[in-house]
Amino acid sequence: MIQSVLSHLSGERSGGLTGAAEELADLAWVDGVFIAVATENGDLSVAAAANLANGTASITLDIAQQLLVGDLSRELDIADTAARAETIRLAAWGVGGVFITPMLTPEGVAGVLAVTSAIPLGLTERRRDLVRSVTREVAATLERTELQDEVEENRRIAEAVLREMSDGVLVIDQEGICRIANPSATRLLGKPRADLVGQPWGAFIALDPEVLEALRRRAYEPTGEPAAPALLALRDRQLAVTSGPFPDPDPARSGMLVLLRDLSAEAEAERVKQDFVSMVGHELRTPLTLIRTTIDLLFEGDAGALNTTQARIVEVLRNNTDRLMSLITDLLDMSALDSGRMQINPTELEVDSIVRGVMEDVQSAANAKQHSVRVGVPASLSVWADPVRARQILQNLVANAIKYTPSGGVIEVQAREVTGDFVEISVHDNGIGIPLDEQVHLFEKFYRTSAGRRTTGGTELGLAIARSFVDLHGGLIWCESDGHSGTRFAFTLPRRRV
After folding, report:
1. Is position 104 within any domain?
2. Angle at Cα 102 formed by Cα 99 and Cα 108, nearest 5°?
3. Could you count the other beta carbons within 10 Å of the beta carbon of residue 318?
4. Backbone phi, then psi, for 42, in 5-degree steps?
5. Adjacent-strand bridge partners of 170
6. In this predicted structure, what is the pLDDT of residue 452?
7. Are 310 and 437 within one domain?
8. Residue 21: which of 103, 106, 107 has the closest Cα?
9. Count of C-beta atoms within a 10 Å radius of residue 98
10. 264-293 burial: b if 16+ Cβ within 10 Å, else e
11. Would you state the pLDDT for residue 423?
12. Which of 107, 130, 156 is the last residue of a domain?
């Protein structure tokens, strides 16, 4: 009996809720049926009705809500419980009685199902059970519909997001076949959707097999650590390729999410920035060189002897001009390193010669802070390095030691041969030390330690430049400090041609 009602809800027969209401009215021998759903504000709204005159469902529903007094979870037989005023009001609409059952779901009351009769109902228990059974099925149907609507809404939102994303998105299944490709993916890869979806992802992501495997591992064996993207070079652009897991409640349907980001705009912005820095740096360097030369002439008395005050002023001018020249040099070097334009010209060099040259350059700064500088370098030790850049690496480290060590400190420069055909050169001071949590950032551009922020000036490019020059030589650079007193910086350079 009940199956004929449920067939409307399951879609086997047309009509939906209205068809189910009409079928129930016939089976239960009642004059009318209506189904009302609960709204967000707790009211009831008629969703379907059968065999009811216009307005009957609404007025019956209004009276039912008054009698239920906000508690929709209990049954109500208006013929038995209604006050005379409600009975008279219903009779005016041709209704002698109403039996109401709640539609209960795990989330609460979804609404009510009511049957009406022209005479007081007095439904048999069998008919009441039929109404209750239909009510449960209607509640389940409404819950499924709501879930389906929610899933459909989420699907529409996800599709809209994918469609509007500027980054390319690919979903790859466990067999390595592309299942989803958003419009940006087809645009960035320069291929129609048909050439992506259903195809092995390695066919259109032209990276080395080792790189593809690394991307796959990141998706299926995530570590939680950020990883550098793979770079995919196409004819007219460069793409950053990253991967991650694509979960699914069914493990067999889970896969890999691949993101494609166009680096063209970023690369162009970086190129413009590098060109600007280079142009400004060179434009500033020329007049500064002339200013520095003029200051030297003044200091040497070519324009007449200087008294003590004048000499001190010229010395300040010279020192600050040197600082500005150093800053410009650092910016130009960093620009060249970032853009890949920096070239080195290695040759065989005596380490002792490099160290002596640097010590001559920094001696006045060390004397100004009353530092004691000690050197321990074997005379026969040599390296294969660019003479200008090798000297610059060491000079940056020694200058840092002088700057961060309080007056009267001790600075040691040492060199020794280490295993693997490398020479280690180190600078050790007894200064303020570097906290352990800051040491990992030391070789980042513009990074300044907490002590440096309080006590010193400068661009803080020296260590970043030193690291880049060491990398170009195939060496290593590192820092050792207990975080409280003293710091040791060391780097390696190859002994022979590499």
Report:
1. yes
2. 170
3. 16
4. 95, -5
5. 181, 258
6. 58
7. no
8. 103
9. 27
10. eeeeeeeeeebeebbeebeebeeeeeeebe
11. 95
12. 156
Dist. CA 67–CA 83, nearest whole Å:
9
Residues β-bridged to residue 466? none
Task: Encode pLDDT of 318-344 as tens digits.
Answer: 888 887 887 788 777 777 787 777 888
Q: Do residue 76 and residue 186 come from a single domain?
A: no
Residue 75 lies in domain? 2-156
Q: Are residues 142 and 196 in the same domain?
A: no
Instruction: Decide if 59 contacts 89 (C-beta within 8 A).
Output: yes
Q: Are residues 322 and 359 in the same domain?
A: no
Q: Is 370 a member of any domain?
A: yes
Judge whether 99 and 131 are in contact, CB under 8 Å.
yes
Percent of the chain beyond pLDDT 90? 27
CATH number for 396 = 3.30.565.10
Whole-prediction pTM value? Answer: 0.50
Average pLDDT over the chain, rounded to an integer: 81
Residue 346: Cβ within 10 Å count: 19
**13 and 133 co-located in one domain:** yes
Whether residue 206 sits in one domain with residue 84: no
239: domain CATH number is: 3.30.450.20
Non-local (6+) Cβ contacts of 195 within 8 A are 204
Task: Say yes or no: 320 and 389 in one domain.
Answer: no
| Residue 161 is assigned to a structural domain of this protein | no
Pairing of strands 372-376, 410-418: parallel
Tell me the CA end-to-end span of the chain in Å, nearest whole number: 90
Total number of domains constituting the chain: 4
Regions of the chain with pLDDT less than 50: 13-14, 81-82
Which token pair is 73?
């979870």
| Amino acid identity, position 68 | L
For the sheet with 372-376, list strands across it. 372-376, 410-418, 422-429, 487-494, 477-480
Domain assignment present for 131: yes
- Residue 395 near residue 382, CB atoms below 8 Å: no
Q: Kindly state whether residues 80 and 152 are assigned to the same domain.
A: yes
